[in-house]
Amino acid sequence: MIQFTKDTASEKYNTRLQTIFNAASEIFAEKGYHQASIRNIAKATGVSLGHLYYYFSNKEELLYKISLNCFESVKFSCVEKLESATDSEERLLIFIENHVSYFVNHLNEMKILAHESDSLTGDFNEEILEIKRNYISILEAIVMEINPKITDPTIITFSIFGMMNWIYTWYNPKISSGISQIVETIFQMAISGIKNFELKKN
Amino acid sequence: MIQFTKDTASEKYNTRLQTIFNAASEIFAEKGYHQASIRNIAKATGVSLGHLYYYFSNKEELLYKISLNCFESVKFSCVEKLESATDSEERLLIFIENHVSYFVNHLNEMKILAHESDSLTGDFNEEILEIKRNYISILEAIVMEINPKITDPTIITFSIFGMMNWIYTWYNPKISSGISQIVETIFQMAISGIKNFELKKN
DNA sequence: ATTATTTTAGAACAAACGTACGATTTTTTA
DNA sequence: TAAAAAATCGTACGTTTGTTCTAAAATAAT
Fold it and tell me: ipTM of the assembly?
């Protein structure tokens, strides 16, 4: 019985926490982090202003936790899917497919990742930056696998990320069709860019 | 003599106005529009807080004028260069070269355009949106010129813009070399994406 | 049942913000 | 040189913000 009540209490806490994360993600994505107020989140969740601080200790920590959770999820899913693939080009396709797919299925969080990366400061910023660097280096490695002549994959890598991360500025989930055509297009462009990179110099 | 003093007065006004625009652009780009304060601009320019409102009537108008000037400049320069080119692929190269070149040479303003497009409201927003739509349609037309089979150029067009507009997140003018390699890479990827778009369906 | 603990709410605070205002200085005009 | 116009500054106001504090309500423990 104690177990039961404890569990439900904890479950209620976790449910509410998730509600807060979701509402905050939506509001951060819609209004931008600095334009979003804790009062907005209070109204959206039905939790009182003061009580929100029972779930997080300040606004920036909220952004940090949303960013952290999102980054680790997309990265985990990426690494997991890559494990079963050895062919370089297939690995590129998997990376792009995973990123775009996650992007479209978590538009709020990924918009935050793409658009509010400068809003974190200090240690919060440092930690997210570390994960980001690591995630980027996965794609860099794939690029250099496909074309070992490339010594500096910076331009190619960020161009691919540019195509993918720009999605939040134009993709409308209510109108646009599925993601397969987006993935195919970006993959085609990426492959071509990688294979032909610096070809003129030879 | 009157003419002279009048000219210098007007000249001083215009010079100062430009100083304010430049400082505001730098601060908006660095801290983001909403995090930037009029007091920041006052300190950066040496103009007092109150007197700044002699040059603009509110903060949003300042963002609007910066955005408008930047958009019209890059668009004007684009149209001008395109006039002399008839070959579709050459036109694509010109568009990309102009955009990237302007981007790198006006990093602050272009970052504002790319990053603060949601910060304008009402008529300000509407007017910038109109120019943006027009500018986008130039690239869309080029894409469909190159591959007339493309009925909906949305994905391709925004992918190209994604590559170009993402530059502000990684390009470091103090470290990175010239833009020619960036332009070549993006052009290569764009051409490939356009020519091979939806090829699988045939 | 009563005490202790956790959960929740609302008010209060200090800081920062955009903007308006009034006064003062500088420049132009007559 | 006197009057009019402009440029310029510092202050003040009202609002919004993130956060804290206090107290009440609900729940758990003994």
Answer: 0.92
